């Protein structure tokens, strides 16, 4: 392939390490000046591509690109919830026109299953139209639901290790709170993200691998009713005098007035009721076997946008899957996602490989039933052995200036627009 420009975009929810992957892409691309020209970013994902809002990453200061490592969430180049559906032919035509107008030869998309599907469709369509464009996926999701349940497509997704570390720390601190205040507040219920996939709430067990806390974990996959959960909470209170509970936002506790995004995914943080509040209400209405009340707390986007809880292992791996995506691109290997595969053995080690985008787009990982306790209120030691290496052992090194975290600040240098203005199909009234 002749020298071409590279375009990267991202969609879906952000993560504490998403910008580490972005840094990996930018810095790796600079190593191939004879094959890769300018590196552009779609400003707010595929929506920015459709609007021809292409941020020039090659024009940024090297220091700011380096600072992406410890810059969380997606503020650097933005993300979106816009889905290009197969019937939106004008959107696909527009994307192809953008790729052609800006001499894009490498289209990288950072995200989950839906994003991998988009990357595959865009690259395939561009080649059908005679453009020499390679589509490469970069994995990302805190939910760890990309891939398959046998962990052959990807062992874990960048972002998960950091949210797992977050819940390790939050649960430890919640235990200290509950242990001190339980004569008045014997039950503390904490709600974790995760929709219908239990990897995030399951990570609370990493705070107590020896099972010394009065900790209960309720995953959506366990399919317990509110009454079932209350029964297990009350049994713990009778046995230990108190209980710390981590509940998945996707647990079936009745009508929550759930709001969905354009991908059809539930947005529990925007819904009328929360799972933890429903459980707290039920416990207090039916009474606890101890004096005092149940209290609850819902954790929201802080799970995916805090730099200080990021896992150093996760940061490194996110960077390397970004690098791997560029290596696939310059090798002419389109139609693949860069991936992380765990090597067998006691010592944690991974290798970076590739898997077909079509395989990722058509897959869905679930939480293994074998990792859920028989009574549905905990997770197994096998899960602990799987997840513990992902959270790392050290605090991330986050630069601080005058008491404030120093994040990357990218200059608003955009490519000149070459096409007429365009309104994405789904945004038209």
Q: What is the CATH class of the largest domain?
A: Alpha Beta
**Quick one: how many beta strands?**
15
As a whole number of angstroms, the C-alpha radius of gyration is 23 Å
Q: How would you write the strand order of the largest sheet?
A: 3-2-1-4-5-12-13
Number of domains: 2
The number of helical segments is: 12
Question: Which term fits the overall shape?
Answer: elongated
Helix content: 25-40%
| Average of pLDDT | 93
Q: Helix and strand succession?
A: EHEHEHHEHEHEHEHEEEHEHEEHHEE
Uncertain stretches: 267-271
Q: Beta-strand percentage?
A: 15-25%
CA(first)-CA(last) distance = 41 Å
Instruction: Give me the CATH fold name of the largest domain.
Output: Rossmann fold
Strand count, sense and closure of the main sheet? 7 strands, mixed
Binding site for Mg(2+): 113
Active site: 143 (proton acceptor)
Catalytic activity: beta-D-fructose 6-phosphate + diphosphate = beta-D-fructose 1,6-bisphosphate + phosphate + H(+)
InterPro entries: ATP_PFK, PFKA, Phosphofructokinase_dom, PKF_sf, PPi-PFK
Summarize the structure.
This protein has helices at residues 18-29, 45-50, 62-66, 89-101, 113-128, 160-181, 199-202, 226-240, 275-286, 312-330, 357-361, 381-387, and strands spanning 4-10, 36-42, 54-56, 104-111, 134-139, 187-192, 215-218, 243-248, 259-260, 266-267, 294-298, 336-342, 350-356, 400-401, 404-405. The chain is of the alpha/beta class and 429 residues long.
